[in-house]
Amino acid sequence: MGLRAAILNRIVAALLPLLLSLAAAQAEDGAKLDGLFDRLKTAQAGEASRIEREIWLEWSKSGSPALDLLLQRGRDAMTLGDYSAAIEHFTAIIDHDPTFAEAWNARATALYLSGAFGPSLGDIAQVLALNPRHFGALSGLGMILEGSGNPQKALAAYRAALAIHPHLQDALEAVKRLEKAAEGQEI
Question: Which CATH class is domain 3-183?
Answer without folding.
Answer: mainly alpha
